[in-house]
């Protein structure tokens, strides 16, 4: 198995894996990603999102990530947006190899954190804990999107004019 940064030819498989992950997370109808969007995001003129793939004869897993920043640490870190290994490849070490690749990026660049979120019911939590990760249960995630996001943005017109 090879772990490497994603290449443009990987995009169709990556999009398929994102949809497979959305299905697993019981949110398939919320996924709207297109190959064109992912290509522009990963390989456009100023990429801010990155991806590593686990490859045997074809991509079998992916780790899609971006940089975050900790004011307390004073350094960037990695936020792992999606880690996915296709069901037939689970148990092969692909997931651990992908997370290890990101840990190496952190070590090489002086980043002090590798963060991600996991659905409470996801059995992969045991895998993450076996790696030494701990759940941050004292932090409650929030998200502003859709109509509330648009309404808040519209309300700021008076503040920016």
Structural domain tally: 1
Please write the string of helix (H) and strand (E) elements. Answer: EHHEEEHEHHH
Sum up the overall morphology in one term: globular
CATH class category name: Alpha Beta
Word description of this protein:
The chain has helices at residues 11-24, 35-43, 94-109, 124-130, 146-155, 157-160; strands at 2-5, 49-55, 59-70, 75-85, 114-116. It has 161 residues and is of the alpha+beta class. The protein has one domain (2-160): Gcn5-related N-acetyltransferase (GNAT) (Aminopeptidase, 3-Layer(aba) Sandwich), CATH 3.40.630.30. Strand 4, helix 3 (94-109) and strand 5 (114-116) form a beta-alpha-beta unit. The longest helix has 16 residues, at 94-109. The mean pLDDT is 93. Residues 1-154 form the N-acetyltransferase domain. This is GNAT family N-acetyltransferase. Keywords: Acyltransferase, Transferase. It comes from Dactylosporangium salmoneum.
Task: List the keywords.
Aminopeptidase; Diverse_Substrate_AcTransf; GNAT_dom; about 160 residues; alpha+beta; single chain; globular; five-stranded mixed sheet
């Amino acid at each position: 198995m090879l772990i490497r940064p994603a290449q443009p030819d990987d995009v169709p498989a990556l999009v398929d894996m994102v949809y497979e992950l959305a299905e697993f997370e019981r949110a398939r109808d919320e996924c709207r990603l297109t190959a064109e969007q992912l290509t522009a995001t990963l390989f456009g003129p100023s990429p801010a999102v990155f991806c590593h793939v686990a490859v045997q004869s074809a991509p079998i897993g992916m780790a899609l990530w971006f940089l975050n920043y900790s004011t307390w640490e004073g350094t960037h870190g990695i936020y792992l947006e999606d880690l996915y290994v296709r069901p037939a490849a689970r148990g092969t070490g692909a997931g651990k190899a992908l997370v290890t690749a990101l840990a190496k990026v952190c070590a090489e660049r002086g980043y002090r954190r590798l963060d991600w979120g996991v659905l409470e019911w996801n059995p992969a939590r045991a895998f993450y804990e076996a790696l030494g990760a701990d759940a941050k249960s004292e932090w409650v995630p929030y998200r502003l999107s859709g109509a509330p996001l648009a309404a808040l943005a519209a309300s700021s017109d008076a503040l920016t004019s």
